[in-house]
Amino acid sequence: MFFTLPDIFYEINIASISLRLILAIIIGGAVGLERGANKHPAGFRTHILVCVGSAIVMLTNQFCFDHFYTAINNGDVVRLGAQVITGVGFLGAGTIIVAGREKVKGLTTAAGLWASACIGLACGIGFYSGAIIGGILIFCSLTVLPKFEEHVYAKSRAINYYLIVDSVTVMRDVSHYIEAHNGSSIEVTLIKVEDANGRLSFNIIAFMPKGTDLKALKHDIELIDGVFIVENY
What we know:
Blueprint: H1 14-37, H2 44-72, H3 79-93, E1 97-98, E2 104-105, H4 107-124, H5 128-143, H6 145-154, E3 158-165, H7 168-180, E4 184-193, E5 200-207, H8 214-222, E6 227-232
Antiparallel strand pairs: 1-2, 3-5, 3-6, 4-5
Helix pairs in contact: 1-2, 1-5, 2-4, 2-5, 3-4, 4-5
């Protein structure tokens, strides 16, 4: 251990609960921002919910050990809780769908379900302070933080577009247009043939220079001859 905090932060009390859960938000949020800014499906709020939920589980586990282990000796008071976590994983998976255009939806909902199960475990064992503080932080993650998330993502240099075009030649024109605006690390993937007319759907990922107006860039791509649809992934 590189440093040691006062004993109060290693016990179950309001100070240690707050510190651990806020730290979970900061670390989980930092990872989520990086993923989301680079257009990965699980972003800021999803990572925060998973991280905070995990912290609540461990806090609840420590609370159980401190308050029940001596009385029950070798009894395992968190065995059923472990089964709840596993079961909710399957429930959460049911909320995740891949939409018709390869878009992943429902990750934040799945994480919210899982985090809610963690809150339920804390409440069920009588870990009131952990459940209340964790519940408030999770609620804030879903209601207050989206505005902050949008602000950060708006400044992202990454673009990730789903396009339906007439032909491979048109897609090449799109790539050249992005290159002409100093786009880098351009990656183009053919997804499928859309219809009998031979229209193709592609995914294109690229990094643009700082200060690029991404809305204007998307609009200009939509105006290229042979481009039918341009959507953000």
